[in-house]
Design goal:
This protein is mostly helical. It has 13 helices and no strands.
Amino acid sequence: MVLAEMMLNPVPSRLEASVEHWASELKVHDRSLVLARDVALQARQQAQSDFYRLFWMGEEDQRQKGFDQLLKAHGPQSWTFTMEPDPELAAQWRSLAELPDDTLGAAVWQHYQRHGFTTPGELGGANAALAHHDWLHVLGNYDVDMIGEVENAAFGAASSSVTGATLWFLGVMAMYEGGLFDSVVTGSHPHQISAPGMCERVVNALKRGRACRQDLLAIDYFTIADQPLIEVQRAWGLINR
């Protein structure tokens, strides 16, 4: 119901009230209702803030020592980017370059080099939480364009029972279809899913995530970075060959 609501811009107040009513009747207390209320009230900045605070990346951010101070000093980009150098994180990521070419870790490092991304932990690079989702881009073979980000969120969220996983998918749909609030990374790019063939791609990503044998958000990928990528994909049911 919340997903359907977030396809509309603006969200009709009667629809928001109806979703709230059914959530109460069904005894559902889900953080997605906070985001739905924000967008229904056209509180764009509040919606962006609540999304990053409540979905799984925000949960990871808030477990980092000193994150509240980072957020106060640097604002919303602290949710996703390295705003102050983190040499330990940068060294961990650079170590992936030393792995054999066929490994998961090497594939993720090559993904960063191919797209010209700054190393996580270096100023302006992804922070640890945002970098976490890049492993999924490689495992699922999803692009880093707008629809690829939607596919990746669908893939990861459908695989996971981590707190805030479902909100990741709902929020990305609200950003890239409804245009109800902005991404800290890309800004506002609505109506991406309305393009021909895009709905089918998102549904396929949801199916792949649901069929995956591993919760894709509940793992430290550095612990398996030295394993062959294709073997990880086979073991988790992501490819059959």
